[in-house]
## 1
Amino acid sequence: MQQFKSRQLPYFIESFKGQKFSGVVSVQVNSPEWDQPRKRIIVFHKGWMTYAGKKIISAQELAKQLGRKLKLKVIDSAIQLANKKVKENPSIHDYLELLVRLELFQWKDVEACVRTNILSTLEQLIPYDGVISQEPETVLDLYYSDSNPGFNWADLRPIYEQRQQKWAELAPAIPSIEAIPRVLSIDKADATVARHLKKWVNSQRSLINIAIALEEDPLALAKLYYRWIQDEVLTCQESGTTQVVNILDVQPIVLSVDDSSVVQTLIKRALTDRYQVLLAGNAVDALNMLNNNPVSIILLDVTMPDIDGLELCRTIRSIGKFRDLPVVMLTAKDGMFNKLKGQMAGATHYLTKPVTREKLLEVLEKYVPIVQI
């Protein structure tokens, strides 16, 4: 059993890919559900992720899940027929292959369903500290094809980042995947919506718990709830046990985005006597912090791996509530052309590193005056 910190889980997933690990990985994190740790499993086949969720799933359970997602009325009859045709204890792959040959669904449908399950599961785990353990003796014999045995983090990461942007766009109406929906006015809902609210929304279940019970993609459910919030049928609040940051609310929050720990340390030392400082080393963490904290201004490095500062700035500007948020670009590059690129991306101000503490404070004070207390 190994411990990991927030955001470190993908590194373990990548290591299993290198080991060509086959078996089940159990992950337990300290989520906002403090009454009990959140436990999930991730299944690997020769280093590739092939399934993820709350528990190990059987071939029949996965087939039923696919049938519900694809709204196949004949799924129960098809499973009965498959049970008669297959030999005893078939592999999940062979069982699903039989249903594919019966033209019930296609392998691309299976892959799409499982991809969403894996992404949803990772969203429930990656933000938190936790422990991870390998169970190579537990085998879930699911794979897709020789050319596509499963999923890896390198391919899923761009989709994961896109989903994080979508979550950010839903805030503050829906603060996060952990938000707890509460009914405002059931009289404004039509009959179908009212039935759902009465059954699932009790001011105690979180959005993620409702999504799991419904076998729905939590992001898809959040988009549905967002429409109901606009109709004043629902409201969503962050879990009362969740505390994103423990700092004075009266101080403006500066979000510094830079992949250099040295630079981040210098910025924090320079500003903490006057501002609250949050640190993000990449675009995904930055979007999560923007989503969960009332950030007053962003210090954004231009040159970062994966998604650079200019692209992140454009992404931030594409989200309505962040269009007027001050963004100060920090870069080692100088010159009018680079400044022009920053302005085109939506930057409010441009500073060339190394920057003195006095200059940095001067710029911050210009856009976010310090509250006198």
## 2
Amino acid sequence: MQFIDEAWFVVRAGHGGDGSVSFNREKYKPHGGPDGGRGGDGGAVVFRAVEDLQTLEPYVRRKVVKAGRGRHGSGNNRTGEKGADVILDVPVGTLVYDEDGLLADLSQPGEEFVAAKGGSGGLGNAAFATSTRRTPAFREKGLPGEEREIRLELRVLSDVGLVGLPNAGKSSLLAALSAARPKVGAYPFTTLTPKLGVVDKKSYLETFVIADIPGLISGASEGRGLGNRFLRHVARARLLALVIDASEDPEGAETTLRAELHAAGLSKKPTMVVLNKVDLLDDELQWYLRDAFPEVPQVSALTGQGVEGLQDFVEQRLRALDEQEGISISRTKSVAEHRTFRPTRKGLRVEKVEEHKYEVSGENVERLALRTDWESPEGVERFQRELEKKGVVTMLKRVGAQPGDEVRIGEIEFGFR
């Protein structure tokens, strides 16, 4: 399966079912009264984080994801069936965005986020029966479900992120440190997608995960080379390991890497330096680097020199970070509750848009217009009464509306009277 870390598509929740207009016709019950049931709610579109998926490829060709529509209500007070939800499994570490920004960060297995809620079902005529209105012959229509364009972004979760210039030996180092077997070649950019490896030793209290990303070059944070696209994958790493080719200007390499991390907004993350390919150095150069890079591990991924010591060094750094962050060694995290707060226009607003044309906006009246069964005279009369109760008729008269003028509420247009 191809590694894909971004996807765009539209999510569309199900429409709520319409209520029913029905009257009890059972034998020996001549005055059974209204018994129309309400419609079922529409299905929702839900994202769920799972561990056995490492790519967004299943969604790269999707255009629209639709949930099921709620069924209409029926007689004998039967409620329509709820529309089927659509559960979209995504890799752990997936960020969910819409046009307004981040909606959810699914960083734990099993976490779920409702990206589009289904529309609620409309009430049947049984719900409108009162002591003075015993035989209502109208119902409510179901509301449309939410719809939004979604962007998914995958950020690989790891404890340690290997960052280095092309051909610094990161892939070889990942293979030496873990059981991972990434592609290794004697040329730059052998790593085209992030690779993960797990370090597991009996002496460690817990395993840790290492991520290798494509090599960075100067200007990577501005879009040059391959590293810019994959810098996001080390953004979640708890510790960044700057892997430097000890045989090729290590001081300059460190300066370049730190500059790119700073430009990418990652300069405040905990970092460590690793000098690789020391097998290419003579003893004099190795001693020089010990002075130039004090307490920096010197290793050779090719020969295995210093690799075991590097494993222990990284494990100690991670445990120290645990203590600094004040969390347990198991790094247990509580499941985040994802809620999206969006400013909604709940108040009424009436304005004149053209001669003899007026527009009414507001969440409550727009929902009322959508729920109204415009083919039912009783339903239209109820809509008129509700507008009077909410003060909409009075507000329209204040701005100059006359009988026969056109009024628009959401997508509904009607004549003012």
## 3
Amino acid sequence: MHSLEAGADQVLAPPCIMGILNATPDSFSDGGSYADADAAIARGLQMVAEGATWLDIGGESTRPGADQVASEEELARVVPVIEGLAGRGARLSIDTRKATVAQAALAAGAELVNDVSGGLFDPRILTVTAKAGALYCAMHMRGTPATMTGQANYEDPVAEVTLALAERANAAIQAGIDPECLILDPGIGFAKRLPHNLAVLRGLPTLASLGFPLIVGLSRKKMILELTGVDDPKQRLAGSLAGLSAAVLRGAHILRVHDVKPSVEATAVAAALR
């Protein structure tokens, strides 16, 4: 069985970087750049060379308003990339909501299922992950990417996100996932507006009190635009690094990023300070 403890030196101390690898034509920042499997594999190897401990491979955009992709298409996008990168120096994560995609990705060499729905979209994904003995990340989201923006309503974002993630962690454990294989993600930008995102980031220590490692992904997201005025996602590095550093100082274990090398450097400094 894979577990976070088995890779503690690489995963938990110090905090580490998960490189985003979207094999999609329509992701918000890099859509189309790595839709070709060879291009995606080359990009993955570059991120490994730059210091990524994890590569998170996705075949379905989950940007606000995105439509669902058929499982067959998603599989065609991600499996060749996973097979091409397996055993090449990084641990592989599959970014999917679907049990069939997770199962095939794990068979191809992925070790972690990164599920933006936390098992709500396709509950079978929990049993698939459990049977494989793989790591599982439950992210907080309301609704689907197509509907989530309309559900960004909170009285107490930190308390509500914490409660929801505790419920998803319990569901994962009940499905047979080892608690040591569980990771949580507060879902920055998913059914959250800027005040909610800021509150949740400030409240990371409360989320960490649930007892599971945290993945945080805010790289190039809309909140950076809203805070800095930088419209082009590819030009939001400075704001992304500031947010990453704050997340590390508040207890994040894995930082999900587009720009690996500068994120590795910023994480090293922030980790030393915490």
